[in-house]
Amino acid sequence: MLERLNRAMEHIESRLDQPIDVVELAHIAVTSEYHLRRLFSALAGLPLSEYIRRRRLTVAGAEVLAGERTLLDVAMRYGYSSGEAFARAFRAVHGVGPGEARRTGAALHSQPRMSFRLIVEGNSSMRYRIVDKDEFRVVGKKARVPLVHEGTNPAIAEFVRGIGPETLGRITALSDQEPTGIVAVSDNLDPSRAEGTELDYYHGVVTRADAPGDMDVLAVPAGTWAVFENSGPFPRALQYLWRDVFTQWFPSNPYQSRPGPEILQVSLSQDGEQADAGLWIPVERSAA
């Protein structure tokens, strides 16, 4: 998988002065556009579209300083419809406008070219199983919240505190299948997975039961799931689990992620410092 991903990265480099089709990149990587965007974000720490933008403006910055083309020619070459649009994008990356950079020879920021390799740390194996599930519902309470990569998500914490014990009891009673009990469900995430982008968060249960009228419902079609288990400090270990799934497990196994909700089942210790967790990720067999 990483070899194919690196071929896609080489394709990006060859077309920085041309339109780049992410569907074509996914074809080169022999995966889906959905999985490519998610895998790249996890491996690189920034969205694919942002990486392409930064690489373009890095190369464009070198041409600005070289002075062999007019600023408008440089702007048009790298896909900007006007000098003003180019100047805004250039300043956002380099902290200085292209005209000033050329006049003063200012130091510019550089986005290095990326390639990927798998580094295995430690000798512990990742516990996982593959589960085929019929269609089901997630029933509970829903909120639109920002994505937080590290630490507690304040918006989710406040939302959960606002669910009364009577309502929580009624939700819990609807659980009738794996994963059992109250689960945290993330759906409708931005493809970039960038910090601060929003997602639908459900605090509910997995069930086939009909939902009460005051509950929110997410219908989930039948499909295959990879289920990962770990234990450790809460919430850091859980967030690291998601990272490890995409940076270690997917590149080493014949599966790719598919659209669908991610389901997290957590059992906290009495002091709330440690957790046992099960992370359910919707997957499908890779094309190759």
Task: Kindly describe this structure.
- The protein is an alpha+beta fold and 288 residues long.
- It has 10 helices and 9 strands.
- A hairpin with a 5-residue loop joins β8 and β9 (274-285).
- α5 (71-77) packs across α6 (83-94).
Secondary-structure blueprint:
Layout: H1 2-14, H2 22-28, H3 33-44, H4 48-66, H5 71-77, H6 83-94, H7 98-104, E1 127-133, E2 136-146, H8 154-161, H9 165-172, E3 183-187, E4 198-207, E5 216-220, E6 223-233, H10 236-252, E7 255-257, E8 262-268, E9 274-285
Antiparallel strand pairs: 1-6, 2-4, 2-5, 3-4, 3-8, 6-9, 7-9, 8-9
Helix pairs in contact: 3-10, 4-6, 4-7, 5-6
Give the structure's gist in a few sentences.
With 288 residues, this protein is an alpha+beta fold. It has helices at residues 2-14, 22-28, 33-44, 48-66, 71-77, 83-94, 98-104, 154-161, 165-172, 236-252, and strands at 127-133, 136-146, 183-187, 198-207, 216-220, 223-233, 255-257, 262-268, 274-285.
Question: Main sheet, how many strands, which sense, barrel?
Answer: 9 strands, antiparallel
State the helicity in percent bands.
25-40%
Mean pLDDT: 90
Overall form? elongated
Secondary structure category = alpha+beta
Terminal Cα span: 9 Å
Search tags:
9 strands, elongated, alpha+beta, single chain
